[in-house]
Amino acid sequence: MLSGVENLAMPRTAAFFDLDKTVIAKSSTLTFGKSFYQGGLINRRAVLRTAYAQFVYLLGGADHDQMERMREYLSGLARGWDVEQVREIVAETIHDLIDPIIYDEAASLIEKHHLAGRDVVIVSTSGAEVVEPIGRMIGADRVVATRMVVEEGRFTGEIEYYAYGPTKAEAIRQLAESEGYDLARCYAYSDSATDLPMLEAVGHPHAVNPDRALRKEALARDWPVLTFSRPVRLKQRIPSLSMPSRPALALTAVAVGAAAATAGLVWFNNRRRSAVQPPRYRFF
Description:
Elements: E1 14-17, H1 28-31, H2 33-38, H3 44-60, H4 64-77, H5 83-97, H6 104-115, E2 119-127, H7 128-138, E3 142-151, E4 154-161, H8 166-179, E5 187-190, H9 196-200, E6 204-208, H10 212-221, E7 225-226, H11 246-276
Parallel strand pairs: 1-2, 1-5, 2-3, 5-6, 6-7
Antiparallel strand pairs: 3-4
Helix pairs in contact: 5-7
């Protein structure tokens, strides 16, 4: 054991992302309205109402009063729903509904934070049954989301934990304590002034596509203001920089070698043909 040498390991850090209009371009919960209708969970009137709510939300976001009304409406709407059926519907439709609306800029930021050694945490007011699979899709390390009371496999319509406003900040502080995050060196991203407590809890807050109130606060506090505008399917993005496993590398090497051999054979045959045949030209 070396004397006089102290353990100076750097504290862990994280990047905390709101979900709706920060990582994805719409409301995650409202996006599944049509799928819930097709699954028999809601009627046509509810579909139209959720579509209208989505439209209003996209135009101007949602302040505290609107969020409260939305919470009451959605929790009442979900009363009696079978939890497993909800999870199945989300699993079956998530790639069609959510994948195309993930912001390219947000996905790039998530990659950069991971490369810098930071955990990525999604902190969303939407329900866990929706947020958790989205978190897995985008590679988040942890998820904080609203949880509803479940009895005998069905939602009661009551909320067990509401991830909203100051509660988000409390969740971040609890995570920092349990995971050893240094909040002064952590990052946070949101579009809404209702998330000011979350942004204030970290040393590097960012406003993303901010509503009017958050933009005003961000400018007053000299916080960075980011504009995300390019929704793109994850499969269409540049592949992750993470290295594949050893078996994958071996298979890749074999494939590359085979491709090179094939290309060489094609080139050699073409050379032989060109030596005995005049060149042919094609016009379009």
